[in-house]
Amino acid sequence: MKKLLITTIIFTIGLLVLGVITSAFGACLGCPDWPLCYGSVLPPETFTAKLEYYHRLLAAIVGIMSITIGILLYRTQKLLSIALIFLIVSQVLIGGLTVILKMPFIVSMAHTIFGILTYIALIMLFKGNYKFQNNLWLTIFLLILIYYIWDGVVEKTASQLACEDIFCLSSDLSNPKVLIQLIYKLIGISIIITSIISLKEFSIDKLAFVLLAISIFISNILIVKSLLSVSMVVLHYILLLSALTISLFKSIKTDSLETSKV
Predict the structure, then answer these.
(1) Looking at residue 258, what is its pLDDT?
(2) pTM of the predicted protein model
(3) Residue 2 and residue 109 share a domain
Protein backbone atom coordinates (compact mmCIF):
# COMPACT_ATOMS: atom_id res chain seq x y z
CA MET A 1 0.00 0.00 0.00
CA LYS A 2 2.85 2.39 0.79
CA LYS A 3 4.25 1.85 -2.72
CA LEU A 4 0.86 2.61 -4.27
CA LEU A 5 0.50 5.74 -2.14
CA ILE A 6 4.00 6.97 -3.06
CA THR A 7 3.36 6.30 -6.76
CA THR A 8 0.02 8.12 -6.61
CA ILE A 9 1.56 11.09 -4.80
CA ILE A 10 4.31 11.31 -7.45
CA PHE A 11 1.72 11.12 -10.24
CA THR A 12 -0.37 13.79 -8.46
CA ILE A 13 2.64 16.10 -8.29
CA GLY A 14 3.13 15.53 -12.01
CA LEU A 15 -0.55 16.29 -12.61
CA LEU A 16 -0.41 19.53 -10.60
CA VAL A 17 2.73 20.70 -12.40
CA LEU A 18 1.28 19.73 -15.80
CA GLY A 19 -1.83 21.72 -14.89
CA VAL A 20 0.31 24.80 -14.29
CA ILE A 21 2.15 24.26 -17.58
CA THR A 22 -1.17 23.89 -19.40
CA SER A 23 -2.44 27.12 -17.85
CA ALA A 24 0.83 28.97 -18.54
CA PHE A 25 0.56 28.10 -22.23
CA GLY A 26 -3.09 29.18 -22.29
CA ALA A 27 -4.16 25.64 -23.16
CA CYS A 28 -6.82 25.09 -20.47
CA LEU A 29 -9.45 25.07 -23.21
CA GLY A 30 -7.17 23.26 -25.65
CA CYS A 31 -9.99 20.74 -25.85
CA PRO A 32 -13.12 22.92 -25.96
CA ASP A 33 -15.48 20.05 -25.17
CA TRP A 34 -15.63 17.38 -22.44
CA PRO A 35 -15.05 14.49 -21.92
CA LEU A 36 -14.02 14.17 -25.60
CA CYS A 37 -11.58 16.47 -27.38
CA TYR A 38 -13.07 18.12 -30.47
CA GLY A 39 -15.65 15.32 -30.44
CA SER A 40 -12.97 12.64 -30.64
CA VAL A 41 -11.29 10.22 -28.25
CA LEU A 42 -7.88 11.39 -29.51
CA PRO A 43 -6.81 15.06 -29.75
CA PRO A 44 -6.06 16.89 -33.02
CA GLU A 45 -2.46 17.62 -34.02
CA THR A 46 -2.19 20.94 -32.16
CA PHE A 47 0.06 21.72 -29.19
CA THR A 48 -2.66 23.16 -26.95
CA ALA A 49 -5.08 20.30 -27.61
CA LYS A 50 -2.41 17.68 -26.90
CA LEU A 51 -1.32 19.46 -23.74
CA GLU A 52 -4.85 19.58 -22.36
CA TYR A 53 -5.50 16.00 -23.51
CA TYR A 54 -2.46 14.62 -21.67
CA HIS A 55 -3.48 16.60 -18.60
CA ARG A 56 -6.89 14.93 -18.69
CA LEU A 57 -5.31 11.51 -19.27
CA LEU A 58 -2.99 11.88 -16.27
CA ALA A 59 -5.93 13.14 -14.19
CA ALA A 60 -7.85 9.98 -15.07
CA ILE A 61 -4.91 7.80 -14.00
CA VAL A 62 -4.54 9.68 -10.70
CA GLY A 63 -8.29 9.45 -10.15
CA ILE A 64 -8.36 5.66 -10.62
CA MET A 65 -5.33 5.18 -8.35
CA SER A 66 -6.78 7.46 -5.67
CA ILE A 67 -10.18 5.77 -5.64
CA THR A 68 -8.39 2.40 -5.37
CA ILE A 69 -6.48 3.70 -2.34
CA GLY A 70 -9.68 5.04 -0.80
CA ILE A 71 -11.38 1.66 -1.16
CA LEU A 72 -8.42 -0.37 0.15
CA LEU A 73 -7.88 1.88 3.18
CA TYR A 74 -11.56 2.39 4.00
CA ARG A 75 -11.55 0.04 7.01
CA THR A 76 -8.43 1.45 8.65
CA GLN A 77 -8.69 5.13 7.69
CA LYS A 78 -12.38 5.68 7.03
CA LEU A 79 -12.51 9.48 7.31
CA LEU A 80 -9.54 10.16 5.02
CA SER A 81 -10.65 7.49 2.53
CA ILE A 82 -14.15 8.99 2.22
CA ALA A 83 -12.62 12.47 1.88
CA LEU A 84 -10.27 11.30 -0.87
CA ILE A 85 -13.01 9.59 -2.89
CA PHE A 86 -15.29 12.64 -2.47
CA LEU A 87 -12.52 14.97 -3.65
CA ILE A 88 -11.73 12.84 -6.70
CA VAL A 89 -15.37 12.54 -7.78
CA SER A 90 -15.84 16.29 -7.22
CA GLN A 91 -12.72 17.04 -9.26
CA VAL A 92 -14.05 15.05 -12.20
CA LEU A 93 -17.35 16.97 -12.15
CA ILE A 94 -15.71 20.35 -11.57
CA GLY A 95 -13.13 19.67 -14.29
CA GLY A 96 -15.93 18.97 -16.74
CA LEU A 97 -17.83 22.10 -15.71
CA THR A 98 -14.67 24.18 -16.09
CA VAL A 99 -14.53 23.27 -19.78
CA ILE A 100 -18.28 23.26 -20.48
CA LEU A 101 -18.81 26.68 -18.82
CA LYS A 102 -15.56 28.07 -20.31
CA MET A 103 -13.62 28.54 -17.06
CA PRO A 104 -15.79 30.79 -14.88
CA PHE A 105 -13.86 32.15 -11.90
CA ILE A 106 -15.71 30.29 -9.13
CA VAL A 107 -15.59 26.92 -10.89
CA SER A 108 -11.91 27.36 -11.81
CA MET A 109 -11.03 28.27 -8.22
CA ALA A 110 -12.97 25.26 -6.93
CA HIS A 111 -10.91 23.10 -9.30
CA THR A 112 -7.69 24.58 -7.90
CA ILE A 113 -8.75 24.18 -4.27
CA PHE A 114 -10.07 20.64 -4.64
CA GLY A 115 -6.90 19.69 -6.51
CA ILE A 116 -4.58 20.71 -3.69
CA LEU A 117 -6.91 19.22 -1.06
CA THR A 118 -6.68 15.89 -2.92
CA TYR A 119 -2.90 16.10 -2.71
CA ILE A 120 -3.07 16.93 1.01
CA ALA A 121 -5.42 13.98 1.62
CA LEU A 122 -2.94 11.64 -0.09
CA ILE A 123 -0.09 12.95 2.07
CA MET A 124 -2.19 12.43 5.21
CA LEU A 125 -3.01 8.87 4.14
CA PHE A 126 0.69 8.27 3.59
CA LYS A 127 1.49 9.64 7.04
CA GLY A 128 -1.41 7.62 8.44
CA ASN A 129 -2.74 10.62 10.34
CA TYR A 130 -5.09 13.56 9.91
CA LYS A 131 -4.25 15.28 13.21
CA PHE A 132 -2.05 18.37 13.28
CA GLN A 133 0.46 19.52 15.86
CA ASN A 134 -0.23 22.90 17.43
CA ASN A 135 3.13 24.40 16.53
CA LEU A 136 4.78 26.96 14.25
CA TRP A 137 4.94 24.47 11.38
CA LEU A 138 1.14 24.36 11.34
CA THR A 139 1.04 28.17 11.07
CA ILE A 140 3.54 28.05 8.21
CA PHE A 141 1.56 25.33 6.46
CA LEU A 142 -1.69 27.29 6.73
CA LEU A 143 0.00 30.44 5.42
CA ILE A 144 1.42 28.53 2.45
CA LEU A 145 -1.97 26.94 1.76
CA ILE A 146 -3.59 30.40 1.77
CA TYR A 147 -0.76 31.65 -0.48
CA TYR A 148 -1.33 28.70 -2.82
CA ILE A 149 -5.05 29.41 -3.09
CA TRP A 150 -4.44 33.15 -3.52
CA ASP A 151 -1.94 32.31 -6.26
CA GLY A 152 -4.93 30.85 -8.10
CA VAL A 153 -6.87 34.08 -7.56
CA VAL A 154 -3.94 36.09 -8.96
CA GLU A 155 -3.67 33.86 -12.02
CA LYS A 156 -7.40 33.64 -12.75
CA THR A 157 -7.91 37.41 -12.41
CA ALA A 158 -4.83 38.13 -14.56
CA SER A 159 -3.29 40.17 -11.74
CA GLN A 160 0.31 38.98 -12.15
CA LEU A 161 1.51 42.23 -13.74
CA ALA A 162 -0.74 44.61 -11.79
CA CYS A 163 1.99 46.18 -9.63
CA GLU A 164 4.64 48.48 -11.05
CA ASP A 165 7.14 47.71 -8.28
CA ILE A 166 7.86 44.93 -5.76
CA PHE A 167 5.56 46.22 -3.01
CA CYS A 168 2.99 48.02 -5.19
CA LEU A 169 4.02 51.37 -3.69
CA SER A 170 3.53 53.32 -6.90
CA SER A 171 0.41 51.47 -8.00
CA ASP A 172 -3.24 52.49 -7.68
CA LEU A 173 -4.71 50.55 -4.73
CA SER A 174 -8.23 51.33 -5.94
CA ASN A 175 -7.52 48.90 -8.78
CA PRO A 176 -8.79 45.45 -7.64
CA LYS A 177 -5.95 43.69 -9.46
CA VAL A 178 -3.35 45.77 -7.63
CA LEU A 179 -5.01 44.95 -4.31
CA ILE A 180 -5.05 41.24 -5.17
CA GLN A 181 -1.34 41.34 -6.00
CA LEU A 182 -0.52 43.33 -2.84
CA ILE A 183 -2.31 40.79 -0.62
CA TYR A 184 -0.40 38.05 -2.45
CA LYS A 185 2.93 39.71 -1.68
CA LEU A 186 2.00 40.32 1.97
CA ILE A 187 1.16 36.64 2.45
CA GLY A 188 4.53 35.73 0.90
CA ILE A 189 6.34 38.08 3.29
CA SER A 190 4.37 36.61 6.22
CA ILE A 191 5.64 33.14 5.28
CA ILE A 192 9.24 34.40 5.27
CA ILE A 193 8.83 36.17 8.64
CA THR A 194 7.17 33.15 10.27
CA SER A 195 9.92 30.90 8.92
CA ILE A 196 12.58 33.20 10.36
CA ILE A 197 10.81 33.21 13.74
CA SER A 198 11.00 29.40 13.75
CA LEU A 199 14.81 29.75 13.79
CA LYS A 200 14.70 30.67 17.49
CA GLU A 201 15.05 26.90 17.92
CA PHE A 202 17.74 26.55 15.27
CA SER A 203 18.06 23.57 12.97
CA ILE A 204 19.44 23.09 9.46
CA ASP A 205 16.06 22.08 8.05
CA LYS A 206 14.47 25.29 9.39
CA LEU A 207 17.25 27.39 7.85
CA ALA A 208 16.77 25.57 4.55
CA PHE A 209 13.06 26.30 4.72
CA VAL A 210 13.72 30.02 5.27
CA LEU A 211 15.81 30.00 2.09
CA LEU A 212 13.00 28.16 0.29
CA ALA A 213 10.44 30.75 1.45
CA ILE A 214 12.71 33.56 0.20
CA SER A 215 13.17 31.72 -3.11
CA ILE A 216 9.39 31.55 -3.56
CA PHE A 217 9.10 35.31 -3.06
CA ILE A 218 12.01 36.03 -5.44
CA SER A 219 10.67 33.67 -8.10
CA ASN A 220 7.36 35.55 -8.01
CA ILE A 221 9.24 38.77 -8.69
CA LEU A 222 11.05 37.08 -11.57
CA ILE A 223 7.73 35.97 -13.04
CA VAL A 224 6.81 39.65 -13.37
CA LYS A 225 10.27 40.65 -14.64
CA SER A 226 10.14 37.90 -17.29
CA LEU A 227 6.60 38.91 -18.31
CA LEU A 228 5.05 35.58 -17.29
CA SER A 229 7.77 33.31 -18.63
CA VAL A 230 6.48 29.72 -18.58
CA SER A 231 9.74 28.45 -17.07
CA MET A 232 9.56 30.97 -14.23
CA VAL A 233 5.87 30.23 -13.57
CA VAL A 234 6.64 26.50 -13.36
CA LEU A 235 9.71 27.07 -11.15
CA HIS A 236 7.66 29.24 -8.79
CA TYR A 237 4.98 26.57 -8.58
CA ILE A 238 7.46 23.76 -7.90
CA LEU A 239 9.05 25.79 -5.09
CA LEU A 240 5.62 26.58 -3.65
CA LEU A 241 4.47 22.96 -3.81
CA SER A 242 7.73 21.86 -2.18
CA ALA A 243 7.21 24.30 0.70
CA LEU A 244 3.60 23.17 1.10
CA THR A 245 4.67 19.51 1.20
CA ILE A 246 7.48 20.05 3.71
CA SER A 247 5.38 22.16 6.06
CA LEU A 248 2.52 19.65 5.82
CA PHE A 249 4.80 16.75 6.75
CA LYS A 250 6.24 18.77 9.64
CA SER A 251 2.83 19.80 10.99
CA ILE A 252 1.13 16.38 11.02
CA LYS A 253 1.42 14.51 14.30
CA THR A 254 3.87 11.61 14.32
CA ASP A 255 1.69 9.27 16.40
CA SER A 256 0.24 7.82 13.21
CA LEU A 257 -2.79 5.66 12.75
CA GLU A 258 -2.47 2.02 11.75
CA THR A 259 -2.03 1.75 7.98
CA SER A 260 -3.28 -1.21 6.02
CA LYS A 261 -0.59 -3.41 4.50
CA VAL A 262 -2.78 -4.48 1.61
Answers:
(1) 47
(2) 0.93
(3) yes
Q: Tell me which residue range forms the domain holding 148.
A: 133-257
The reply to whether 227 falls in a domain is yes
What is the reported pLDDT for 237?
A: 97
Structural domains in the chain (count): 2
SS3 of the chain: the string is CHHHHHHHHHHHHHHHHHHHHHHHCCCCCCCCCCCCECCECCCCCCHHHHHHHHHHHHHHHHHHHHHHHHHHCCCCCHHHHHHHHHHHHHHHHHHHHHHHCCCCHHHHHHHHHHHHHHHHHHHHHHHCCCCECCCHHHHHHHHHHHHHHHHHHHHHCCCCCCCCCCCCCCCCCCCHHHHHHHHHHHHHHHHHHHHHHHHHCCCHHHHHHHHHHHHHHHHHHHHHHCCCCHHHHHHHHHHHHHHHHHHHHHHECCCCCCCCCC
Q: Are residues 98 and 2 in the same domain?
A: yes
Residue 63: the pLDDT is: 97
Q: What is the pLDDT of residue 191?
A: 98
Last residue of a domain, one of 130, 158, 192: 130
Task: Give the model's pLDDT for residue 165.
Answer: 87
